[in-house]
Write a structure and sequence with these properties.
- This is CARDB domain-containing protein.
- It comes from Wujia chipingensis.
- It contains 3 helices and 17 strands.
- The protein has 318 residues and is an alpha+beta fold.
- Among the domains are: 113 residues, Immunoglobulin-like (Sandwich); 106 residues, Immunoglobulin-like (Sandwich).
- Strand 12 and strand 13 form a beta hairpin.
Length: 318
């Protein structure tokens, strides 16, 4: 009977111990749940994420062979700060390179949800093709516990070739008011990139505005300008030193941005000589007497011929 009572007591102790254990476990779960609600540590908080939220380029257009400043806006998206950050910019093929140094910058820390700006002096290598190039931004940093992390972003930078033209061999005809003047010239592509949709026009004080389409001109090539414009005003030689007429060449780059080159052109336009016109009008009237004189001479020659012929026949008859 005593053994049976002892076994029941022991079983009761085990049940009480298990009950206490369940209560402890339940209490721990409640505490963890409350802690998660009060301090919601997400994966982002545990692994702080840093990214390039924006960037600025000092040059309006990046040309092959030119230097420019690149400013990165680096955002810490987590609530906790990050520290000991190293930022490195580089392109895979070396198309965009740092002007000096290794293209790296050190950032002591960035507070949670804050941005840090870092500026790099870069160069687009000479001899590049006209297209968009990738630039990688690598960021290595630590969280508040000293754990190391790495992130990488990619920028896309368009690089252009410099365009440069000259207008040479400008020639014009002398003319009188009302006549058509021929204007010829040559457009030379001295730059590194193609000239697109090249147009040339002449305009100014002495001739009517005229325009011609030349087309595309490749690097090192030339296009011809050939225009006919009506002369409308006599040249004032006292004002010839002042530009009053121009050949204007317009062209586009690869993105359709328009550019313009303007050169002076001189015309020698004379007034119409009305005395010459009067002479021309009178000339047909003066041909009358001349014509009768010719007819009279012809009649005399014919009469002499007839007389000689008759005389010869008479002599033969005798």
């Amino acid at each position: 009977m005593a053994n049976k009572s002892g076994w029941k007591n022991q079983q009761s102790k085990h049940q009480r111990r298990n009950h206490h254990l369940r209560e402890i476990i339940l209490a721990i779960l409640v505490v963890l749940s409350v802690a998660a609600t009060v301090c919601p540590y997400s994966a982002q908080a545990a692994t702080p994420k840093v990214l390039v939220s924006g960037y600025k380029v000092s040059a309006a257009t990046i040309y092959s062979g030119d230097n420019f400043n690149l400013t990165l806006e680096i955002l810490n998206t987590s609530k906790n700060k990050v520290k000991n950050m190293k930022v490195t910019v580089a392109s895979e093929g070396g198309e965009i390179i740092p002007v000096t140094g290794t293209g790296s910058a050190y950032v002591a820390e960035i507070a949670g949800n804050e941005t840090s700006e870092q500026t790099f002096s870069m160069q687009a290598a000479a001899g590049l093709a006209e297209k968009t190039y990738k630039l990688s931004v690598k960021m290595g940093y630590e969280n508040t516990s000293g754990e190391a992390f790495e992130m990488e972003d990619t920028l896309y930078l368009p690089v252009y070739l410099k365009q440069r033209i000259s207008v040479t061999d400008v020639m014009t005809d002398d003319a009188k008011v009302g006549d058509e003047v021929e204007i010829t010239a040559q457009v030379n592509n001295l730059g590194e990139g193609m000239l697109y949709n090249v147009n040339a026009r002449v305009e100014g004080k002495h001739v009517e505005k005229q325009e011609t389409y030349i087309g595309n001109i490749d690097t090192g090539k030339s296009g011809n300008v050939d225009l006919l414009a009506k002369a409308v005003m006599v040249t004032d030689f006292e004002e010839m030193a002042k530009p009053e007429d121009w050949i204007i060449v317009t062209y586009e780059d690869r993105n359709g941005n328009k550019h313009e080159e303007k050169v002076d052109v001189s015309f020698y336009i004379e007034t119409v000589d009305y005395e010459d016109l009067e002479v021309l009008k009178e000339a047909p009237e003066k041909t009358g007497p001349v014509t009768w004189q010719i007819l009279l001479i012809c009649a005399c020659v014919l009469a002499v011929g007839v007389f000689v012929g008759v005389t010869i026949n008479k002599k033969r008859s005798r």
